[in-house]
Write a structure and sequence with these properties.
Length: 305
């Protein structure tokens, strides 16, 4: 039986425009290309966990529009259970993304239907939480919903993972005690801990603070530098596999989904981190968010001696 992962989070349609440079205020530019790609941190992490071996259920909301239908279809195509993905009035979540020739981007996210995933809505889907081995949350749905999911996950004895993304401020203090694995990137770790993170030493200082605030264990992802694991007793640095980076979109989402799938399948923490890192490294060698997430067989082929 594959391990069961439940993701409580966002689904967004990414509307991606490429232009030679980013437009200034009031300026109209002619772009070079346009594509519509399924995304949202919740959905990306669900797709990653599913491609990387877990049986996944998604809890979220889409709008009553063409994007909503497409977002749901993209998850169903990955054999993700969408019985707890509700269709609500109004628009789906969208991310309007402009990428320039230097790979700089500017992004406007409209949460739309993601804002309709309330704590009450989550209570209706409690059996989906009960059936899971492991729960993953991010911060693209309302705080009250995330808070309820973390608390309920802990009450039910599930493995609880929070990827605090996007984060620009402190988390509610009472959340920390429900989190088994807190997985921020450098800027999120800094926002949560108040410690600027730009090296292994500062990552250790931030992780120490986050554990003192109540998080069980902390994994700070460090881009091409890999990640730092802290469990309150010791630290371990996991260097990232060296690859030619093409597009780092969804690297963090792929790491979180891969780590979660491996951990839920009973792997040890170190093995699950290495597995997530190989998956994330493969994702940065390909363009796009969900399209760049590798399959289990790709990771196994990379890891084969
Ligand atoms: P986010 O995408 O959330 O900002 P990071 O940039 O820290 O997160 O990347 C998450 C993980 O993806 C890293 O811990 C690492 O394992 C992997 N990764 C990211 N960039 C690279 C890269 N250039 N080469 C290899 N692995 C990478």
């Amino acid at each position: 039986m594959p391990a069961k992962v439940v993701v409580v989070g966002s689904l967004n349609m990414d509307l991606v425009t490429r232009a030679s440079r980013l437009p200034k205020g009031g300026e109209t530019l002619i772009g070079e290309s346009f594509s519509v790609v399924s995304g949202g941190k919740g959905a990306n992490q669900a797709v990653a966990a599913a491609r990387l071996g877990a049986q996944v259920s998604m809890i979220g909301c889409v709008g009553r529009d063409a994007y909503g239908d497409a977002l749901r279809a993209a998850l169903l195509a990955e054999q993700i259970d969408c019985q707890a993905v509700s269709t609500v009035d109004g628009s789906s979540g969208v991310a309007l993304i402009v990428v320039d020739d230097n790979s700089q981007n500017s992004i406007v996210i409209v949460p739309g239907a993601n804002g309709a995933l309330t704590a009450d809505q989550l209570k209706r889907f409690d059996p989906v939480l009960q059936a899971a081995d492991l729960l993953i949350c991010q911060l693209e749905v309302p705080d009250a919903t995330v808070g309820h999911a973390l608390k309920r996950g802990r009450e039910l004895g599930k493995i609880v993972i929070l990827n605090p993304a996007p984060a620009s401020r402190a988390l509610p203090a009472h959340w920390y005690g429900s989190i088994d694995y807190l997985i921020p990137n450098e800027s999120e770790a800094a926002a949560l801990s108040g410690v600027a993170v730009d090296s292994l030493d500062t990552a250790q200082a931030a992780a120490t603070k986050l554990i003192a605030m109540g998080a069980g264990k902390v994994i700070i992802t460090l881009g091409a530098q890999g990640s730092l694991f802290a469990d309150g007793n010791s630290f371990q640095h996991f260097p990232a596999p060296s690859v030619k980076a093409v597009d780092t979109t969804a690297a963090g989402d792929t790491f979180v989904g891969g780590f979660a799938a491996a951990l839920a399948a009973g792997k040890g923490e170190a093995e699950a981190i290495r597995f997530g890192q190989v998956a994330a490294a493969l994702s940065v060698t390909r363009a796009g968010a969900q399209p760049s997430i590798p399959a289990l067989s790709d990771v196994q082929a990379f890891q084969a001696p």
